[in-house]
Amino acid sequence: MKQELQADILVVGGGLGGVAAALAALRAGRRVVLTEEYDWIGGQLTSQAVPPDESSWVEQFGVTASYRRLREGIREYYRRHYPLTEAARAKRDLNPGGGHVSRLCHEPRVAVAVLESMLAPYLGSGTLRLLQPYRPVAADVDGDRVEAVTLAHRDTGERITVGAPYVLDATETGELLPLTGTEYTTGFESAKDTGEPSAPDEAQPDNMQAVSVCFAIDHVDGDHTIDKPADYDFWRGFRTDFWGGNLLGFRAPNPRTLEAAERTFEPNPDDDPLAVVGDQRRGGGDMNLWTFRRIAARRNFTPGAYASDITLVNWPMIDYFLAPVIDNPDAALHLEKARGLSRSVLYWLQTEAPRADGGAGWPGLRLRGDVTGSTDGLAQAPYHRESRRIKAEYTVVEQDLSAAVRGDKGAVSYHDSVGIGMYRIDLHPSTGGDNYIDVASCPFEIPLGALLPVRVDNLLPAGKNLGTTHITNGCYRLHPVEWNIGEAAGALAAFSFERNLPPRAVGDDPALLAEFQDRLTAEGFELRWPDVAAY
Predict the structure, then answer these.
(1) In terms of pTM, does the model score above 0.85?
(2) Which of 302, 365, 469, 518 is least enclosed, having the fewest CB within 10 Å?
(3) Residue 236 contacts residue 247 (beta carbons within 8 Å)
(4) Distances (CA, A) of 258 to 61, 76, 244, 436
């Protein structure tokens, strides 16, 4: 049976960008339909099980007010509901996991609870309709406008068609772009097209970043070894020229130097999680794999509450780069192979990984599918670092923000900024056989022009599918930037709805653009990085 719905704004995809987009439109008084194909909203923060990657200044500035409310909501949830020690409860910048990758490492389901609480008033009032689990399967297009999107229930196949004057693509891989005929690109652009120092001579559309299937583990008494994966022997022997050893091993390239470096791994170290400072300026933090993405530090909780730390495995060895999973007819096969790689990594850790005492394996490592909300123990969704990207009115290129290119000038300042972000250009090994590409970047802005497709009038990107290149996607893909992109897209759609204008008209009219930017500022957006001086 096919149902029909109508909304002011349709947001397809309930990841961080999608939730932020919906919230912005709802705050502006619009009726919104939001869809999500997995059991949890939140995307990379929840169903993909990736703790937030953020800039060194996140506790002071550099994110929108609503993203800050999300972060503080996560901390408050722990304070209200978890048996924290008094010292942990009193710490203003509580990091529940004491992980080194971020100043806020936490269990995914806590973020789900906070995100749901942010949407709850609008669900209660009926201004928001959440369709879950639904994925887009078709679109009705009339010339340069998207009229409606048809969605299918993941489990039953039931179809719902939603019409809306403004449609936002917040899917993880830009699923609406081919469905609507919106012009897009994938993989590496060529240096002759973009002028980027790190780009190849010729375009490589099938050369995309690795996809990863994350999982959570703890370490307790007993033997929790999983069944040997069917493809374990393949992965156990797999190696590539630039890795420095077998993929299943603690030796892997340092992303910033490309020199092979030995990681350490020791479950439940005798450390003080309250003393950990997650700061990317001090290094990537991945040399100690257990604490790298630890999401629950047992010593932050009252004695006995947690039998073990819980750590999130999103390590170099689970990066699947044998083939792309976008615009590939065998995508499902390769996603299953990526899951097989993750299972093989766990089995290797349990049975063969070298220990400091000369032994092999930690059979006490226990897969925590309850933490990731899945039946097979792995994350519900694969972690997609790269999406299809719109061909935009403005494309952000490496030389806009590379520290090597820009130097003391800092990143390009855009007249149409709708937000800011900061992260190194961080590209993982790719399906074309490339090693890491890791480039220091300047704190950057998000131009409105990167949200505007070159042709389609009423579709906006609300995540990693905006107008970046393969290279600049490496710093625009992180949690707070994705949230800012989505929130800006939702606000732009609502602003355009009020005036019955295509979004590009806002970018074309200086008076409208100034009015829109004023609205963003009033909503708690930061459009420029602070330039602090004496006064």
Answers:
(1) yes
(2) 518
(3) no
(4) 31, 39, 10, 7
